[in-house]
Amino acid sequence: MSPALEATGLGVRYRRTWALRDCSLSVPTGRVAALVGPNGAGKTTLMHAAVGLLRPARGSVRVAGEAAFVAQDKPLYESFTVAEMLTFGRRMNTRWDDAAAADRLAGLGIPLKRKVSGLSGGQQAQVAVTLALAGRPDLLILDEPLANLDPLARHDVMRSIMAEVAGRELTVLLSSHVVSDLEETCDWLVVLNGGRLQVSGDIEELLDGHLVLTGPDEASAAGTQMVGGSRTGRQVSMLVRGAPPLDPRWQARRPGLEELVMGYLRSPESAALPGLTGVGA
Amino acid sequence: MIEFNLDRGSGVSTYLQLVHQVKQALRLGTLRPGDQLPTAREVVESLAINPNTVLKAYRELEREGLVEGRPGMGTFVRQGITGATLAEHTRLRRSLEAWVHDARAAGLDQEDLRVLFTVVLADAAKEGVA
């Protein structure tokens, strides 16, 4: 299957600083991809480049079909009513499904006559996502859609996005600081750190392909590839790739998503990148 | 019909939790042959999980011959989990309750009970293999 999003040698520069360097990745169609990394990692830059809001200095990024983008500062007009936002969307878009948008808002219990400024943060996020989906995109890109929302609103926003993914062929790329928000919802992981791509792959395969090893520091972990680790006295704890080592002094277990992400972010020189075909480690 | 719920701190993967809950419902008779499982969209809308997780769980149940997907209609229970009948279940439950009561009276706490039960189960499984 052709990827929904593909970057090849992508580099983006703001004046003299590289915000993104030599980034090659592909996200297969139908996936819900998590884009994670610290502030300034290049997440927003990658999203902007994908939807054509800025031009790469090097390489290219390509989206199969139509992409819709929801920026972090919810792109709504405070003084508009929800109905006026819908009208605005209809006039700005060539592809537009007004009935689906109205249905969606009704299902969420958001009144069309209410002004945007009178909505809760969660409702504003839902309206922004609804407007993006009304354009029937093939790829939905969301920059920090859960930021500043309470846990209930976060759950509601994710529920409605997941329902959309279940209903039709839609690929989602969403960024977040909070990895635990993404654990149940995403099946593809992209980790950016300091403008470089560290990880891109299927989450289950990544977790199956890594181990957290705990043991004495003289134990041999031959055969595994170290991602990163820490030492407390004589005990070593580390994240590795590959099969469990033979040395019986190691305790090995499968990492959680957060451990995997943190392991890579703490070791910026490590990387887990498949070929450009996207699937496979 | 079955309503899924998730134990997010359990460390058991989400798709396995769904598989276990269907099997549990089949054992208890709350799901019976011919019953329809909720659609991926319904599950996703209540739990906020990835739809592929639901499909993976249903594929696993299908592989084990417990459910079948009917194109355009949904996923249906094919067979119950064979084993003890409901009457036997009730009888066994009574004797287990009596045993737990007995063990409590002998001074075992919740954790002791769990360990003892797990050890006996594991031993029985080993004998079964040998």
UniProtKB/TrEMBL annotation, chain A:
Keywords: ATP-binding, Nucleotide-binding, Transport
InterPro entries: AAA+_ATPase (IPR003593), ABC_transporter-like_ATP-bd (IPR003439), ABC_Transporter_VariousFunc (IPR051782), P-loop_NTPase (IPR027417)
Pfam families named among the record's database cross-references: ABC_tran
SUPFAM superfamilies, per database record: P-loop containing nucleoside triphosphate hydrolases
Entry keyword annotation includes Ribosomal protein: no
CDD domains: ABC_DR_subfamily_A (cd03230)
GO molecular function terms listed in the Swiss-Prot or TrEMBL record: ATP binding; ATP hydrolysis activity
Record's keyword annotation contains DNA-binding: no
Domain ABC transporter: 5-219
Cross-referenced PANTHER family: ABC TRANSPORTER ATP-BINDING PROTEIN ALBC-RELATED
Name of the protein this chain belongs to: ABC-2 type transport system ATP-binding protein
Automatic annotation (TrEMBL), chain B:
GO molecular function terms listed in the Swiss-Prot or TrEMBL record: DNA binding; DNA-binding transcription factor activity
Keywords, comma-separated and alphabetical: DNA-binding, Transcription, Transcription regulation
PROSITE patterns to which the protein is assigned, alphabetical: HTH_GNTR (PS50949)
Signal peptide: none
InterPro entries: Tscrpt_reg_HTH_GntR, WH-like_DNA-bd_sf, WH_DNA-bd_sf
Record-annotated HTH gntR-type domain positions: 12-80
SUPFAM superfamilies linked: Winged helix' DNA-binding domain
Coiled-coil residues: none
Name the UniProt record assigns to this protein: GntR family transcriptional regulator
Organism: Nonomuraea wenchangensis
